[in-house]
Amino acid sequence: MRLKKSYGQHLLVSSGVIEALVKQAEIKPDNVVVEIGPGTGNLTRELLKTHLKKLYLLEIDPQMIEELKKIKDSRVVILQEDATKFDFCSLGEELKLVGNLPYNVGSLIVENTVFHKECVPFALYMLQKEVAEKLLKGPSWLSTFLRTFYHVEYVMSVPARFFIPPPKVQSGVIKLIRKEDAPAIEDLKDYKSFLVKLYSMRRKALKKKLREELLKTAGIDPLTRIEQLSISQILLLYNLSKTQEVEER
Ligand code: SAH
User: Fold this and answer.
1) What are the Ribosomal RNA adenine methylase transferase N-terminal domain coordinates in residue numbering (predicted)?
2) Could you tell me where in the chain the CATH 1.10.8.100 domains are found?
3) 62 φ, ψ (degrees, to nearest 5)
């Protein structure tokens, strides 16, 4: 089979790594699992050794779909879908998302996960290591967006030689566990726009991006830069900017 670079196809071929991933997915008998980018099914077959209740496979490439059809297990449902846009919540209310993600769209899949946080209490993703590390600590709008709602844990690094073909970069696995006390934010798209704006021109002082009055009310020095703020300070600014909007109307 010819693997497609455009779909980020790097198949995981180390049984040790595959077993470690499944172990880290902490699968319980009643779990409904969604595997993103199953490819030829290497990780899928290991997942099926657990007692999971149902396994949805989200794969974009029709050629891979043909391969996946060879897996005979009544718990499997194959869906030809784009995981960057897919409505995960259409599959259930308590999902476990797992995948060796296509690295070219890894960040978009993480973003789409946050947009469906209501039905995703847990995810285990393998990404480009650099991307995984940046999600863990920031600074980036996506890291803050993610960490507003999830605890992010670094699980392990995986060297390129465990894949066919080997990618040019190292890989990193992260675990996302939804925060029980996550803030209620009504409009996630609006929160995203707010963060994108704050993190653009990262080195500029906050007073270039927000009204000084807002910063004063929040007790934040207008000369502060975004990477110096904690998530709770960012949330405070966001909530204050919303109340001020209402008052201005
Ligand atoms: N999990 C497999 C394959 C990983 S490669 C393994 O570890 O061996 C990434 C897989 O994601 C490929 O099969 C690729 O076709 C698929 N893919 C790429 N873009 C996708 C997208 N937007 N939505 C769903 N799957 C995608």
Assistant:
1) 17-180
2) 188-248
3) -60, -30
State how far the alpha carbon of 114 is from the alpha carbons of 38, 117, 143, in Å.
20, 5, 11
CB neighbour burial string for 222-238, b if at least 16 within 10 angstroms, e if fewer:
eeeebeebeeeebbbbb
Q: What is the mean pLDDT of residues 83-87?
A: 98
Query: According to the annotation, is 8 in a ligand binding site?
Result: no
Of 1.10.3720.10, 1.10.8.100, 3.30.70.240, 2.40.30.10, which CATH number belongs to 188-248?
1.10.8.100
Q: Please give the backbone phi and psi of residue 157, each rounded to the nearest 5 degrees, phi first.
A: -100, 150
Q: Would you say domain 5-178 falls under CATH 3.20.20.80?
A: no
* Shortest-distance atom of ligand 1 to CA 35: 1
CB neighbours of residue 128 within 10 Å: 20
Tokens at 239, concatenated:
């909530």
Ligand 1 contact via 58 beta carbon (within 6 Å): yes
Q: What is the pLDDT of residues 144-190, one digit of tens each?
A: 999 999 999 999 999 999 999 999 999 999 999 999 999 999 999 99
Q: Does any ligand 1 atom lie closer than 6 A to the CB of residue 11?
A: yes
**Which residues of the chain form CATH 3.40.50.150?**
5-178
Query: Which residue's CA is the nearest one to ligand 1's atom 19?
Result: 7
Query: Which atom of ligand 1 approaches the CA of 44 most closely?
Result: 1
